[in-house]
Amino acid sequence: MSTYYAGLFADIGILMLGALSVYIILVTNQLSLGNAGFMAIGSYVASYLTVEQHWALTPALIVAALTACVIGVIVGFPALRLKGIYLAIATLGFGEMVRSFFLVFSPMGGSGGYRGMPHVSLGYIWAWTAGILLLVTLLERSRLWLEMRAIHDDETAAGLVGLNTTLTKVGAFGFSAAVAAIAGGLFAHHYIYIEPGNFGFERSIDFVLAVILGGSTVGAGALVGAALLVLLPEWLRFLADWRLAAFGAMLILVLLTRPQGILDRPLLGLLRRRSKPS
Amino acid sequence: MTAPSPTSLLRLAGVSKSFGGVRALRDVSLSVAQNRIVGVIGPNGAGKTTLFNVITGAYRPDAGDVTFESRPITRWPAYRIVRAGIARTFQNIRLFASMTVWEHLIVAQPRGGAPLRRMLPVRFADREALARAEDALMFFGLEKYRAALACTLPYGIQRKVEMARALSAGPQLLLLDEPVAGMNRDEADDLRGLLLRLSARGLSILLIEHDMAFVMNLCHELYVLDFGALIAAGHPSDIRNNPAVLDAYLGSEVAC
Known about the structure:
The complex is a heterodimer of chains A (278) and B (256). Chain A has 278 residues and is mainly alpha-helical. Chain A has helices at residues 3-26, 35-51, 57-79, 84-104, 122-139, 143-153, 155-160, 165-191, 201-214, 220-235, 243-257, 265-275, and strands at 114-115, 193-194. Chain A has one domain (3-275): ABC transporter involved in vitamin B12 uptake, BtuC (Orthogonal Bundle). In chain A, helix 1 (3-26) runs antiparallel to helix 8, helix 1 (3-26) packs across helix 10 (220-235) and helix 5 (122-139) runs antiparallel to helix 8 (165-191). Chain B is α/β, with parallel strands linked by helices. Chain B contains eleven helices and ten strands. In chain B, the strands form two sheets. A six-stranded mixed sheet of chain B has the order 6-7-8-3-9-10, sandwiched between helices. Classes of the chains: A mainly alpha (278), B alpha/beta (256). Chain A binds chain B through residues 138-139, 141-144, 146-147, 149-150, 152-154, 156-165, 217, 265, and chain B through 56-58, 77-79, 82-83, 87-88, 90, 94-99, 103, 106-111, 117-123, 125-126, 129, 165-166, 169.
C-alpha cells in the first residue's frame, strides 16, 4: 500500500474512533461537541507514558482510556442537568478548557507541542479500531444498549419502567471518553507530534459530522461517515478550489434525503438478509 | 371510608400534592390489598393521574406517605419503585419510538445475575429473558407484531404493548391509567378477560378509568376522587348509589 493511502486509512481509523465516541453518548440522547477534549487527554497521557516512562503503547493506551473514563464520568454528572443545545454548548466549553490547559501546561510542551513518541503501524491502529467497532456492534445487541436507547426515546418513561437513567447516562459518558482517548493515543503515535491545536473545536465537529453523515443510529455508521469524511475531499480533488464547496453541497444533499444518516437499522437489516440467502 | 386492611400491599396516608395554586391531591388515603382489583374514578382533572405519578415516584408529594409491602417508598427514585414491584402504563401511551415490540419486552425485565450478562448479546446470553418475552407475546397475542416498531401499530395494540412492557418488570402491583380509552367494546371485553387472568395469577391491579361499565364489572373496590379529594370508597354497587358520587360525577347517566 502506498504511503498516501496508508496515511488516509490511519486517518479513517482514528476519525472513526472519535465518531464512535460521539455515537456512544448520542445513543442516550446526549450530544457532545467537546470529545476532542477527551481525545487530547488520551493523547497526552499515552504520550507521557511511552516517552517519559518508556511504557509499551498498549498498556499506555489502556491507562489513558481509564484516565479519560474517570474524567468522562465526572463530566457526565453535571451533564445530567443539561439537555440538547445547552449540553452541546457545555461540552464545547469542556473541550476548549482541555485544549487551553495543554496550551499552558509546559511539562508536556505547552503551545510548542510534544514529540518523541514511537511510530505505530497502520495494522496496529486498525487492530484497535476494528476491535472497538466489534465491541460496540456486540454491545448494540445487549440489554445495556436497549436501556440506552430507551433513555434516548423517552427518559421519563425509561425511569418508570425500572431503568436507572442516571447511572446509564453517566456510564455512557465514561465509555465515550475512553474511546475518544484511544483515538487520541493512536493519533499521537501515528503523527509522532502533538500540539493543543490538534484537539480544537473543529476536531469535535468532525466526530459529530462523521456520525451524522454515516448514520447516527448504528455504530457501523461511524465507519461509513469517517471513510466518506476522509476520502471524499481526496476524490473531489479534480474540482480544485471548489472541492470543499462541493463537499458541503453533498453533505446537505445526504441529510435532506436521509436525515438519520446513510446507514440505519432497516438498511443494515436489509444488507444482512442479502448477505445470507435463505 | 374503609380503614386500610392489615394485609394491604400499597397504602397511601394523607397524601397531598399542589402545583402552584392548584391542589391536585388533598389528604388522600387509600389502600390496595393483595390480589385485588381496585379502581379510581372521578371527573377530568380530579387528580387521578397525579395520584399515579406520586405512587410511581414521578412526583414527590408535599405531604403524606406511600408504603408498599410495609416499606416507605415516598421519596424513592422511580426506577427503585418499579424494581420494588410497582409497574404502570400511561394515559397517553409512551412507547419507545425506536424499538420493536420484542425490544420493549426485553428492556423492561428486571436485571438479575452477573452485570456482564447485561452487556452481552441478549439472544446468546439471556435465555430466561427470551423465554419471558415469548410468554408475554403469547399472553397478549402479540406474536405477529414482535418485529414491528411498536409506535407504528394500531392504538389498541399499543396499549397491549404498554401493558406487556409493564408486566415484564415482574410487578406485584400493576397501575393502569385509562386502559380502555379509545378501545371499542370488543377490545375492552378482551382486555377485561386478560386482567382477570392476571388477577387469577396473583397480580394486584389499581386502575384509573372513565368507562363505568368496565370498572363496575371488574373492580372489587372503588375510590372516587373529586377536586383532588376522596369523596367515596367502597364496593362498586355502593358507589353506584352513593349520593355524593352521583352529584359529583355520575350524574344521571348511571345507566350502566
